[in-house]
Amino acid sequence: xxxxxxxxxxxxxxxxxxxxxxxxxxxxxxxxxxxxxxxxxxxxxxxxxxxxxxxxxxxxxxxxxxxxxxxxxxxxxxxxxxxxxxxxxxxxxxxxxxxxxxxxxxxxxxxxxxxxxxxxxxxxxxxxxxxxxxxxxxxxxxxxxxxxxxxxxxxxxxxxxxxxxxxxxxxxxxxxxxxxxxxxxxxxxxxxxxxxxxxxxxxxxxxxxxxxxxxxxxxxxxxxxxxxxxxxxxxxxxxxxxxxxxxxxxxxxxxxxxxxxxxxxxxxxxxxxxxxxxxxxxxxxxxxxxxxxxxxxxxxxxxxxxxxxxxxxxxxxxxxxxxxxxxxxxxxxxxxxxxxxxxxxxxxxxxxxxxxxxxxxxxxxxxxxxxxxxxxxxxxxxxxxxxxxxxxxxxxxxxxxxxxxxxxxxxxx
Length: 413
Description:
The protein is of the alpha/beta class. Helix content is about 30%, strand content about 20%.
């Protein structure tokens, strides 16, 4: 069958660098670190005492005050970014065919704060839970509620694949549209796991940085002295639309989704394949899906979490996938600034890739101090400062616990 073109017509985000697309892009291009001491709860006894928190978020901008308590924070973040994206797209909700509009969302954990609060309040002598406990907590509820808000009756489900969740959601939305099964989607992901349970859980795995004396520089992708990732939170939403549908209504187009790839490491519960086999495959398949050659890619927004093993495996995979062209790529990890947004990472980093194409600017990888002898220093990781470059194709990688890999390729319009 002949695939239809899929374009991006709206963007929205709430993340540690800002509560709008404009604030986010300003933070990215200026190399701002969003990491700081946690303010949401007492961290005095925590091994890690910092994270990249969303700041100055007012949910009542998006939800009536009396409704806020009915939703977990990850859902409130989803509402916010989805509303921004819808408004940005200029979609007329009165005339759009809602039977052919859907919501495919990503969440790695879902309502962790709700689960933690309810479990903490549980008493065996009075085993009573809040009636909103289950609908607030389940990982699919954000996508469901967004579809209810806008009356979109098309495909509606949630992808749960740890840190690859939002990328998988984008790929699924892309596939439905290009196969002619829908006209448009709200897609992306949200996460809100900065709480006692989330922090302690990742700490017990020794996954987080413990650089409490210097949180601003704690997220150090590809640096020799990296010691783990920095938790982030927030959401990102994209409006994907069939090209002719977008043109007919006179939509502003940011760019196109060119292709997507999915693979599994099939190696370990939490560690990446040391040779980057799954990561190599997922990039190769994304290129094949897009119908382009490795040398067509200009920019790679890497998974780049600042973990000891992951930051070695991914550059190896890039070299295997791209060959000599790997040394002509611009590469950067925006997690050095936002921290790791877990299930929302693919959406927020996909948006970074789209904005990089639009503005012709490669966001930097900040906090690099010492080269790691196990990582090829000839690769261009855009350390320190953003740089200007024409970008025709950008590739965004996300890899999750369980060995889940997803890659999305965006194209200049």
